[in-house]
Design goal:
The protein is α/β, with parallel strands linked by helices. The protein has helices at about 5-25, 30-45, 65-70, 85-95, 170-185, 220-230, 230-240; strands at about 55-60, 100-105, 110-120, 125, 130-135, 140-145, 150-155, 160, 170, 195, 205-210, 215, 245-250, 255-260. The longest helix has 20 residues, at about 5-25. It is elongated.
Length: about 260
C-alpha cells in the first residue's frame, strides 16, 4: 500500500513520454485555438447586430438631445465598437463652451450613450444691443440679440469678450462677488430681474426684485443678508403690500433699511 509496482511506474513514464511527443508534434495548437476564438468573436462583433440603432443623451439641460447629437455628428448604422468615433464626438462637443465634460458609453448591443456635463448659464450682460450670456465663473457661453430671460447685468465696462473664456471687465472684483450673489439667489428663494453696476472697482449695485423694488448695496453685503434669510423676510413683508415700491439698502454694518424712494 502507498507504493507503485515497477510495471505501474513504467506505464506512467511511458504516458509522460507520449504527452511530450504530442506537444512536440502540435506546438501551435493552443495558439491556433486562441486565434480561432478571437476571430469568431471579432466576426460576431462586426455583424449588423452591433450596428448603432439608437443614440441617447444624458446630462444636457440647455441643448436638446437632438441638438447634442447634431453637434457631435454622431451616426447610426455604424459599428458600435469601431465606427462610433468616440474621440471625434468628444472633440466636437468640447469646442462648444457649454460643455465642461463629455463621455461616450456603449449599451450593448446597439445603443450609444453620450453623457455631457454642461456649464450653467446664470446671467446676461448687456453689451450694446446684445446680450452676453455667462456662467457662474464668468465664462462667456454665447452672445445674441434675443433676451435670454436671465438676470440682466448692466453698467459693466467690458475690456475683452471671447466665447469660451472668462469675460474681462474693469469691475472684475464686483462682478465676481455679484456672480457669487446670483448663485446664492436660487438657494435663497429670491430672484433679481436685473443688476446695475455703479462706477468704481468696489462699487455698489442695484439689484431689482421688481421694476419698482430695488436692493442696493455692495454684492458681499447683499449676499450675507441673503444667506442669513433676512433680506428674503424684508422682501416678503413688502410684497404683501399693494403697489410696493422703494429701495432696500444694506450697509457695511449689515443694517437693512427701507426707503419709498427709488
Amino acid at each position: 500500500m502507498g507504493s507503485y509496482s515497477e510495471e505501474a511506474m513504467n506505464v506512467l513514464e511511458n504516458t509522460k513520454v507520449v504527452k511530450r511527443e504530442i506537444k512536440k508534434k502540435h506546438p501551435f495548437r493552443n495558439f491556433l485555438i486562441f486565434v480561432c476564438v478571437v476571430g469568431v468573436i471579432l466576426y460576431i462583433m462586426s455583424t449588423s447586430l452591433f450596428d448603432i440603432k439608437s443614440i441617447k443623451v444624458k446630462g444636457n439641460h440647455y441643448y436638446s438631445d437632438q441638438q447634442v447629437i447634431t453637434l457631435a455628428d454622431a451616426k447610426k448604422s455604424v459599428n458600435i465598437f469601431w465606427g462610433a468615433g468616440d474621440s471625434k464626438i468628444k472633440n466636437r462637443l468640447k469646442k462648444d463652451p457649454y460643455f465642461v465634460d463629455v463621455s461616450v458609453r456603449r449599451k450593448l448591443p446597439s445603443t450609444l450613450v453620450i453623457a455631457v456635463e454642461e456649464r450653467k448659464q446664470i446671467a446676461a450682460v448687456e453689451y450694446g444691443d446684445k446680450y452676453v450670456v455667462i456662467d457662474p465663473e464668468g465664462v462667456v457661453l454665447r452672445t445674441g440679440k434675443i433676451d435670454p430671460k436671465l438676470t440682466l447685468i448692466s453698467g459693466l465696462k467690458i475690456t475683452k469678450m471671447q466665447r469660451g473664456e472668462q469675460l474681462k471687465v474693469k469691475q472684475s472684483k464686483t462682478l465676481a462677488k455679484t456672480l457669487d450673489m446670483l448663485q446664492a439667489m436660487e438657494k435663497g428663494d429670491i430672484f433679481f430681474k436685473k443688476t446695475i453696476f455703479e462706477e468704481g472697482q468696489d462699487a455698489y449695485i442695484r439689484a431689482y426684485v421688481l421694476d419698482n423694488l430695488v436692493v442696493k448695496g455692495k454684492p458681499q453685503y447683499v449676499l450675507k443678508r441673503m444667506e442669513s434669510g433676512d433680506l428674503q423676510k424684508v422682501v416678503n413683508n413688502l410684497m404683501q403690500k399693494e403697489d410696493v415700491r422703494g429701495t432696500i439698502f444694506i450697509d457695511e454694518n449689515n443694517f437693512i433699511t427701507f426707503s419709498p424712494d427709488i
